[in-house]
Amino acid sequence: MFEEKKNDIALLILRLGGGGFMLTHGIPKLMKFFSDVPIKFADPLGMGMMASLVLAVFSEFFCAIALMVGFKTRFSSLALAITMFVAAFVVHLADPFGRKEKAIMYLVIYIALIFSGGGAFSVDRLMKKS
Fold this sequence. Notes:
The protein is an all-alpha fold. It is about 75% helix and about 0% strand.
């Protein structure tokens, strides 16, 4: 039994880790909407600070939660991968590697999940069975 589920357990760990750690970035960004302090946020793609913040919160908070439970795993991973690509190669492009390394590590996790999907222990799999 265990031998058959090793990959699904690995995908569960990857989803929980990749989504859970990302929440530590998404929650503070979400809280900016509930603060009395005027919103200031990077605008790396020229869409405006508010649009950039909304997209970051969508991926780093909402998609991170969806990833953890395995709901729309490939879509959530894609949104997170795009966010991490922008963080690493647009926002931190001129920075030394150590500054962009975390975003690249997240990017690798999300790319792997785009290809693999959520595995057996996911909402995606439950929805597929019904």
